[in-house]
Amino acid sequence: MAAAADGLGSIAIDTTQLNMSVTDPTAWATAMNNLGMVPVGLAGQQLVTDSICVPGFDPSLSMMTGITPINPMIPGMGLVPPPPPTDVPVVKEIIHCKSCTLFPPNPNLPPPSTRERPPGCKTVFVGGLPENATEEIIQEVFEQCGDITAIRKSKKNFCHIRFAEEFMVDKAIYLSGYRMRLGSSTDKKDSGRLHVDFAQARDDFYEWECKQRMLAREERHRRKMEEDRLRPPSPPAIMHYSEHEAALLAEKLKDDSKFSEAITVLLTWIERGEVNRRSANQFYSMVQSANSHVRRLMNEKAAHEQEMEQAKESFKNALTGILTQFEQIVAVFNASTRQKAWDHFSKAQRKNIDIWRKHSEELRNAHSEQLMGIRREEEMEMSDDDSGDNPTKKLRVDDSALAAQAYALKEENDSLRWQLDAYRNEVELLKQEKGQLFRTEESLTKDQQLQFLQQTMQGMQQQLLSIQEELNNKKSELEQAKEEQTHTQAMLKVLQEQEINVLTVALVNQDREKNSEKRSPGLKSEKEALLIGIISTFLHVHPFGANIEYLWSYMQQLDSRISANEIEMLLMRLPRMFKQEFTGVGATLEKRWKFCAFEGIKTV
């Protein structure tokens, strides 16, 4: 292979081959006649485009300067381009080698066909070789396409060539269709038309699979690195239980800023089963510390609720101010539409003022509905609060508070009993450990501890007695509250009976007044009849009645010039169709109008 490469630079080429111009049609026709082929349509046609060959290339330069003629297939020269686009006709040129000459196919013939390219193809099939072609000649021709790793030649004028890289196969496919002639012989055994095609080799496919597996591993590694980067951090590891860690955790439980972290550790310890006979007191103290945070959390909740109420109040005040300003703007527009000022505006100005007035009225009505909705919600809340102010509910609240206090005292009593049992168990353990040993300094310290525990036990007993006394007092207070509740319930029944009697008398008087009343005067205009029909329909779909403000806001959408006083006077003129009722007590007293025409028809 090296000898063939060296020979490319030192071989002396026959002048008959070098003097033939590539672009000369007569030379091309002579070459085709020597090969036994008839040229078709080649008069004056350039066989090689400027993008493929060197412009103005003259092969006879080697005779004058001693330079070897440039071969378009020499690696590194870049004269063999990649496959051109399909819409551009491919024009190939004659290629001169040391032992042979390659003549391009007829440009008017269709390009040679190839099979589908196998994945990772580095091997080509070369058919149509001359019978006298040797492996050295094949290597000389195709090594210009790239490094050749193996040539497998058959006895039937074909071979397989394997290159080092895949892109070299494309350069070899470029030679498909060329006619190869050995030397200057015209014998059929020394010429043949090359057919170069892709070949499927196990080695190429194996290398391609290895490369794909390597790329897949790299992709998996990249994805794993990306997942590790985007994965949220793991929670901190929880330490194992020990007396030292328990003491530190107890201090953390008392700190509000570290409570969340500490309560997680405490929950994990309890779920792991770290609670035993010796550590029960420590765990109870930590649970008690956790319970102490309940009051803090409730206070925080109350503070947030208060902030929310303040925000609601500020929003309501701001909305009221906005609505007032909208009313003022609408009043300005209404004043502008009066004839005294309206005549002085131009037609375009009147149109703009009318559009602005309608837009402002729509916004004003929307804000007024929103404000009325807020007021209705407040009224509902106030009615709930009024119903909660009943003496029976107050007594229930007092009873629940007393019951909660009693339950808390019972829990404290039970906790003190458990502590007392724990201290007794410790005393028994100390006695068992003491046994029959001689009294030493350790035994003296144990006796002192025993005395200290006895004193604390006595103090616990006294505290337990005082708690029991408080419990008895609370029970007596609870009984007194129950007696007061029964007394107030009896009084409430009496008051309800009196109110029923008063209401019956008032209803009888009202019926008498209604019977004694004369018929109301007739309607004055068609507008009043229309208003009565709309109000009757509105009140009919509101069986619980509606106040005059709510009714006026609805009528404002139909006629903005109507006032609440006109609606109220019209309703008062027709007592058999509309009746007025009072709901609420004290500050929540409200007048509501109801539609009662159907009841009046039934009674007539």
UniProtKB/TrEMBL annotation:
One of its GO terms (cellular component) is extracellular region. It is found in: Cell membrane; Secreted, Extracellular space. Pfam families: ENOX1, RRM_1. SUPFAM superfamilies: RNA-binding domain, RBD. Residues 122-201 form the RRM domain. GO terms for biological process: ultradian rhythm. This is Ecto-NOX disulfide-thiol exchanger 1. It comes from the Eukaryota. Keywords: Biological rhythms, Cell membrane, Coiled coil, Copper, Electron transport, Membrane, NAD, Oxidoreductase, RNA-binding, Secreted, Transport. Its main location: membrane. Residues 287-314, 406-498 form a coiled coil. Belongs to the ENOX family. GO terms for molecular function: NADH dehydrogenase activity; protein disulfide isomerase activity; RNA binding.
